[in-house]
Amino acid sequence: MGTTPLNVTLTVDLTPHTVDWLTIHRRTYNGEIPGPTLRVRPGDKLYIKLVNNLRPDNLVRERGHGPISPNITNLHLHGMHVSPKEPHDNVFIEIGPGSSYQYEFHIPDDHPAGTFYYHHHIHGNSHFCVGGGLVGFIIVEDDVTTMPPELSAISCPLNCHKEVQLAVGTNFRYRFLPTDPILSYSNLQKDLGDPSRNLDQLASGTGTMEDWLMDPANNVDYILTNGQMWPTVTLTVGEVKRFRILNAATIEVLEITIKELGCQMMVLAWDGIYVDAPYRTRMVVLSGGARVDVAVRCWFSGDFTMTTVMAEENDPILSSEYWQMRFDQDLLTLHVEEKAAVFDLEPFPTSLPAHPSYYRDLRRIDDSEIDGRFVIEFGPEHEVNREHFKDAMYPRYKYEVGTIQEWYVINTEQLKPHPLHIHVNHFQIISYNEYTHPWGALHPVNKTKSAYYDLQGNLCDQQFLHFAHNLDWPTSNPPNFKYHGHHNRSRDSIPGYIPLGEWRDTINVPPLGSMTIRFVADRFTGTQMIHCHNLNHVDRGMGLVVEVVEQGESTHGAHTASGGAYPGTCRRTDPYPDVVTGVSTTNVNVGSHEHGH
C-alpha cells in the first residue's frame, strides 16, 4: 500500500522527434513520445506539476466547436478512479503558454491495479495535440503479497523485464485526401497556422517537405507505436510476457492480431480492470482510449508480426463504410529467439486479482436496487442527447453519490460507430438491446441540423418542436438497416463485441446500437465528463457533463430534455426513464434487456 507522496514534473514543449529518416516537431511531455511512464500504488498521493513551455501565439482561438490554440494544455488521468474536482482530475482547467499548474491526485486505497494513461484534454484541440503525442502511461501496480504467482512472474514490481508497454496511435498520417482532410496531420497544422510545420525546401526545388508528405502518391499514412514505425520486441521460445497495449489514436480503432501462426494471446484485463478469468483470443479490438493487457507466448523462433487489420468479421459493429477509423498496418515485430536451456513453456496466469467492492457484479441485481436511469444518445453532426457540448455548468443529468445507476447508450447513426468514454467511474456491460429508438440523419432541407425518424422512416413528431417553420419536410426517408440487430447476432464469434459482464471505461457503440450499462457512483462528487472518444468528434461538440451530488442533496436543475424532446424517444408520448414517468425499465420503451438471469 503506497504512502509516500510522489512528485513529478511534466513539461509540455515543442521538441524534435525523429521517425526513420524524418525529423518532425511535436508537442511532447518531457521531450518523449509517449511521455514518461508513471508508476503508482493504491493509496499513493501523486503530485504532478504540469509546465507549459509552449510559446504565446496568434493561432486560431475559435471558441465553440472547432479548433483553438494547440498551445493551451491541461491533463486528464484516463480511467483513474479519482476526484474530478480541482486540483484533481478537472478537465476544464486551462494552462496557457508560459504557465504551470500543480495537480494533486489522491489514489484510493482500494483502487484497482492496472493500465491507465494520462493525456491532454482541451476541448477544441485534443484531436491535434493528443494525436501529436501528448500521452503517457500510468501503471497502478499490484500488491505483490496478494497477486497470484503466475501473474507476479510477468509483472512489475518484481519482474519488470517481463512487461511491454505499447502506445499505439500517434499520428503520422500526412497524406492529404480532399474527402477526409481531418486525417492529414499536415492539413491540421495548416489550418492552425502551426509554426512546427515541415516547410523545409526539398533539395529538388520542387516544393516543401510538407508538400511531399501531403502528396497522396507518396502514401505517408501511418500510425506510430511508441513513437516509432515498426519497433521490435524480443522474446524467447516459450516465454510469457505481459503486453500493456494502449490505443492512443484519436480516431482509429485497432483490430490487433498476430499475423503468423505460432503465438498465443491471453486476455488479462481491459481498461485497467482484470477480467474474471484469463481467456484466449486471436484478436483484440480497441476503440480510441481503450487499453488491454494480454499475455503473449510463442512456440517457435523467428519473426512474427503484430498488426491491425480491417477484419471483415468486425464489419457489423465497426462498419465497413466508416473506413477512416479502420485500416491495415503492421505495428511491430515480435522477434522470438531460441531458448538456450531445455525448452519449456512458461505458464499463462490462471487466476487474477478480485475487483474492489464498487466493481461488484451488477448483472443480477433487482430493479428495486437501481437508484437512477439515464439515456446517452449519439446523433448526427457530433451531437450527444441532441445538443452540442455547452460547458461545465450545463449538466444533462444529476444523481447522488453512492447510487447504482443504469444507463442506456444509444447510437442513432446508421453507418457510424462511436466510442463512449465516461470519466471517474468504470461501468459494467449488461446487454446489447433490440434497437427500437429513432435513427438520425441530416435535416432534409437545412443540411446543418439533425433530424430523427422512426424505424418506418417517418419523421419523429418531436422535430416540430425544433423546426416548426419547416412543415414541408418529407414524411418518409427509409433507413439503412445494414447494421441493425446487434442483440440477435452471435457476438461470441465477432471480436469487436464486448463480453457481457466486463468492466470498461471506453466502449464502441455500434451503428443503430443500444446497450445497457450499470455502475456504482462511488465516493466522488462533482462535474464528470462523458463524450465520444473519437477526439475529432468531441472537439466538434460530441460531449456532455453530468453532476454527482452528495447524498440527500437536490438532483433538480439538470438540462435533461432538448427542446422538449428526450433522447431515445421519437414521440411526445414515449416514456423516458425517471424523467417523464419515473417507472421501472420493464415499462420503459428503451428496448429489450438481457439481465443475465
TrEMBL record:
PROSITE patterns: MULTICOPPER_OXIDASE2. Pfam families: Cu-oxidase, Cu-oxidase_2, Cu-oxidase_3. It is an enzyme of class 1 (oxidoreductase). The keyword Oxidoreductase applies. Its EC number is 1.16.3.1. Residues 28-58, 72-143, 202-308, 395-550 form the Plastocyanin-like domain. Keywords: Metal-binding, Oxidoreductase. One of its GO terms (molecular function) is oxidoreductase activity. Gene3D superfamilies: Cupredoxins - blue copper proteins (2.60.40.420). Belongs to the multicopper oxidase family. This is ferroxidase. It comes from Branchiostoma floridae (Florida lancelet).
